[in-house]
Amino acid sequence: MTDAAPTTAAPTAAAPTERQPDAAPARRPARVRLLWLLAVVAVLAATALASFAFGSRTVPWSDVLAALGGAKDSLEQAAVAKRVPRTLLAVLVGAALGLAGAVMQGVTRNPLADPGILGVNMGASLAVVTGVAYFGLTSPTGYVWVAMAGAAVAAGFVYTVGSLGRGGATPLKLALAGAATSAAFASLVSAVMLPRNDIAGGFRLWQVGGVGGASYERLGHIWPFLAVGFALCLLSARALNSLALGDELAAGLGEHVGRARATAAVGAVVLCGTATAAAGPIAFVGLVVPHACRLLVGVDHRWLLPFSALAGATLLTAADVVGRVIARPAEVEVGIVTALLGAPFFLHIVRRQKVRAL
């Protein structure tokens, strides 16, 4: 184990960088990372309070605190009570997408990996719409199972197509395959919904991606699936650190490469499918968040994954607040806000990294 690093670091250009989290604690002390973690938690708490207070009606902070204590004596306090499940859904969905994006980037070693870019979210969306239109799917739990199946099929299809030809599954080929698959699935979703006026209205806003209409009942249906996905992804952190060194070196270090990659991928698919079933296909959260978190804590997945979950929750909650404030008394769906933020970032990543592998 200790003799492997000197002999393998030279031929692999990415090895010194990828081993940095384990080898350089002095330059990134755990205390500094912990302070960043506390800062992200504080920002998330402030964003959640802002979500309670701001919307089509601005609620004074005294009424916010009273409503959180259980009071419903005024219209303002009742508004806060309605915003609590919406905020919780935004937190859970944002955390799921941020964590899934970090895991996908680690599994594929692709800096452009994202549930939206790789077509995973749109595959889940197509599966749900097809199930409702042709198979009478009505159960909220059924939505989640069908969405996870669609996400898994889409992920497998994109990876297979991106692996064809010389060079295997390069970041550019995966991004192109994912973009083409997303476009095709989006067209199929429209084709399924257009002749069905009875379901088109309800799914139109869901297809854009949003957390409006959240309820404690919906949260109760999705939290067991999210718990499983979070557990699988977080438990894969050490294995993802090994995979970042390359499959051969990871196997030499005792890692079961196929099993590690499959476990992490299943966790990401569960999170993507569940998040899509609950809030629709929201893009770019899984791309923006992991890159931003690497600037704070480095590439060690033991820190990167929980940071990505917290930062994803913060980003989606903030995007929901912005969407409610800028178009009062109407609102802009959160999927539109994240797309406006994420598309320029995507172009920046392509230009800066020239779609190299992680």
Automatic annotation (TrEMBL):
Any one GO MF annotation of this record: transmembrane transporter activity
Highest taxon above the source species: Bacteria
Residue ranges of the region described as Disordered:
1-25
Q: Where are the transmembrane segments?
A: 34-54, 87-104, 116-137, 143-162, 174-194, 222-241, 262-283, 303-322, 334-350
Q: Which InterPro entries match?
A: ABC_BtuC-like, ABC_transptr_permease_BtuC
Q: GO cellular-component terms in the record?
A: plasma membrane
Gene Ontology biological process: siderophore-iron import into cell
State the compartments where it is located: Cell membrane
Topology in the lipid bilayer is annotated as:
Multi-pass membrane protein
Q: Does the keyword NADP apply?
A: no
Q: Which UniProt keywords apply?
A: Cell membrane, Membrane, Transmembrane, Transmembrane helix, Transport
Concerning its family, UniProt says: Belongs to the binding-protein-dependent transport system permease family. FecCD subfamily.
- Recorded protein name is Iron complex transport system permease protein
Supply the source organism for this entry: Streptomyces zhaozhouensis
Its lineage opens with:
Bacteria, Bacillati, Actinomycetota, Actinomycetes, Kitasatosporales
